[in-house]
Amino acid sequence: MQKPPFFLTIQRILSRGMRTSRPRADRARWLRRLWRLVAVLAFVSTLDDTVLAQQDRWAEARAAMVRTIQAHAALLPKAAMADGISTAILDVMGKAPRHTFVPGRVEGKAYADAPLPIGYGQTISQPFIVALMTHLIGANPDATVLEIGTGSGYQAAVLSPLVKAVCTIEIVPGLGETAARRLKDLGYDNVQTKIGDGYFGWPECGPFDGILVTAAAGHVPPPLVKQLKPGGRMVIPVGSVFGPQFLTLVEKTSGGQITTRQLLPVSFVPLTRESQ
Ligand code: SAH
After folding, report:
1. Ligand 1 cavity residues, CB under 6 Å
2. Separation between Cα atoms, residue 95 and residue 93, nearest integer Å
3. How far apart are CA 87 and CA 70, in angstroms?
4. Which of 113, 164, 239, 257 would staple 245 via disulfide (CB 3.0–4.6 Å)?
5. Percent of the chain's residues with pLDDT above 90
6. How confident is the model at residue 14 (pLDDT cuts 50, 70, 90)?
7. Is residue 195 a contact partner of residue 222, using CB atoms and an 8 Å limit?
């Protein structure tokens, strides 16, 4: 077996330092150097352990989150989900660093299958809902996707590796600006962000193969329907703040006709308007 280079270095120092023909002061200097090297190696190995322990901690939590998403999807009625969440989506969610999208005080719960507060009275969506919505719009490498409600930026981060381009709009400037910076720092380069009222969509960024609305609307906004490509899909929670809300799938056929289907009851923060 070949010895690692640092082992050979230690051996060389040892053999040189221990040669009896060397004067005593010389030997003492070599010993000091040896101890310094040992101390540095010991320090570096602790650092490595700390970094690995951190990464492992999140990796395990992420893997558990993915298993929960799969189990949850298996319980859905066939009308809502025929074939389970795609492997591509599960792979991406098994890697996306959700803990960097939540405030430090809730970081420990980042991979629980639950929504979490992100400030300004808003929440990051539950991982299962993120997976389901991504699946329902049929995310694929050629797709241009619009998200309404950037929030923490997590949903956009999950979409990013799966599609060609993501355009995302947030109405609360404090959230939108933080999410934009975070997405840029993490290298999600195909995501464009904008502050504004998502009710009107983003025509210059579209038309869209998929639209994903992450706040509950009283009705399906007509500007969004208009910006959907023929063959495109929109997933949107429809209902009131206190009453029932249903995750709704809106499809535009290749001929331009619109069909809507209520899939399952959900609970989202409301889609607010600029005047509110
Ligand atoms: N997708 C987000 C979760 C969003 S919560 C994530 O992954 O973290 C819903 C978000 O929609 C909130 O941040 C809220 O401020 C935003 N929102 C509400 N009404 C909006 C509107 N009219 N236009 C754009 N964003 C809106």
Report:
1. 122-125, 148-149, 151-152, 154-155, 169-172, 175, 197-199, 214-215, 269, 271-273
2. 5
3. 10
4. 239
5. 72
6. very low
7. no
